[in-house]
Specification:
- With about 325 residues, the chain is α/β, with parallel strands linked by helices.
- About 45% of the residues lie in helices and about 15% in strands.
- It has two domains: about 5-170 and about 215-240, Rossmann fold; about 175-210 and about 245-290 and about 300-315, UDP-galactose 4-epimerase, domain 1 (Alpha-Beta Complex).
- It has eleven helices and twelve strands.
- α1 packs across α7 and α6 crosses α11 (about 300-315).
- The protein starts with a strand and ends with a helix.
- The relative contact order is 0.14.
- Bound molecules: 2-amino-3-ketobutyric acid.
- 2-amino-3-ketobutyric acid binds near residues 119 and 182.
- The site of 2-amino-3-ketobutyric acid (AKB) has 12 residues, from loops.
Length: about 325
């Protein structure tokens, strides 16, 4: 079956690379992208509309015009920024999801993808190998919006039989599009500053271990989930996705193997530390492994080499 895909919020960290992979798979003309911001440049053949995802009427017109078979809603405000703009964050993260779920049912879009996050867990969730089902008491507005979003997804599946699929992404490491406003962003900033200054002042403490993943693995996971037969999908809220787990001191050690003089220092009392301390250290993901064959491919040593090479040649 030929697919028509709409990606809302396609110019962010995940959307950019997801769009590239989907274009390679389905043809550029079949992947319609939107974002509130214009991209820096538009490759030949790319279909792009500048659009606010909160403008329900224009999203409805887009759905009616293109009759998508798959919709990816990637627009979101990340954890650290969201703490500064809680109302805006709630509106963007929740209203966009409600609109898309509603329009997907109305216009019969077959399949919807929406990203949740490890931020949906909280201080009373088990820290190590955090399971799929456990206490979830997020302390950030971002995490609360993700947990509420997960419940909405499952509700739309149960109530309207909408084929909704979702992943709780860990921190994602990428060099093509830099994220903004996340708690895990240090794991990207560190490579840039190592190359530019030989030094990085980390806003998280040396031992703050968090779940992480290289972007190519995250995009592959997303496509695997979206391509899996519907009968295999046991979870309609959001899947745990494991991969790596490391702390700032581990990534620093890895960089020192490539840049021997690299130094890391640690800033005290950054508000992002409180967020990180409330999140899991590692994730148990047996449902993703069993239901759609998930297996990460990139270890930290490979990621460090790729990041230094590509950020270095980007300058
Ligand atoms: C963030 O740090 O806010 C995100 C996330 C883990 O959801 N990268």
């Amino acid at each position: 079956m030929s697919e028509t895909i709409i990606i809302l919020g396609a110019n962010g960290q995940i959307g950019t690379e997801l769009a590239t992979s989907l274009r390679q798979k389905h043809g550029a003309e079949n992947v319609i992208t939107t974002d509130i911001k214009e991209p820096d440049f538009l490759d030949k053949g790319v279909v792009f509309y500048q659009q606010d995802v909160l403008d329900k009427q224009s999203v409805e017109e887009l759905f009616k015009k293109h009759q998508p078979t798959q919709v990816y809603l990637m627009a979101a405000m990340l954890s650290a920024t969201a703490e500064n703009y809680p109302e805006k964050a709630w509106d963007l993260n929740m209203t966009s999801l409600l609109n898309v779920l509603d329009l997907a049912v109305k216009t019969k879009a077959n399949k919807v993808f929406w990203p949740s996050s490890i931020g949906a867990f909280g201080p009373n969730s088990p820290k190590e190998n955090t399971p799929q089902y456990c206490t979830m008491d997020p302390q950030t507005i971002y995490g609360i919006s993700k947990l509420a979003g997960e419940r909405l997804c499952e509700y739309y599946y149960n109530k309207h039989n909408l084929d909704i699929r979702s992943i709780r992404y860990p921190g994602l490491i990428s060099w093509k599009t830099i994220p903004g406003g996340g708690t895990t962003d240090y794991a990207i900033d560190i490579y840039k500053e190592a190359l530019e200054k030989g030094h990085y002042e980390c806003f998280l403490s040396a031992d703050t271990e968090l779940p992480m993943l290289y972007m190519d693995d995250a995009v592959r996971a997303t496509l695997q989930l979206m391509e899996a037969p519907a009968e295999n999908i046991r979870i309609r809220s959001s899947y745990n996705l494991g991969g790596l787990s490391f702390a700032p001191k581990d990534i620093a050690k890895d960089i020192q193997k490539e840049i021997p003089g690299f130094q890391i220092t640690y800033k005290k009392n950054d508000p992002r530390q409180i967020i990180a301390d409330s999140w899991p250290k590692s994730i148990e993901d047996s449902y993703a492994q069993e239901d759609w064959g998930w297996k990460p491919e990139y270890p930290l040593s490979a990621i460090t080499k790729i990041m230094l090479k590509n950020i270095g040649s980007k300058k």
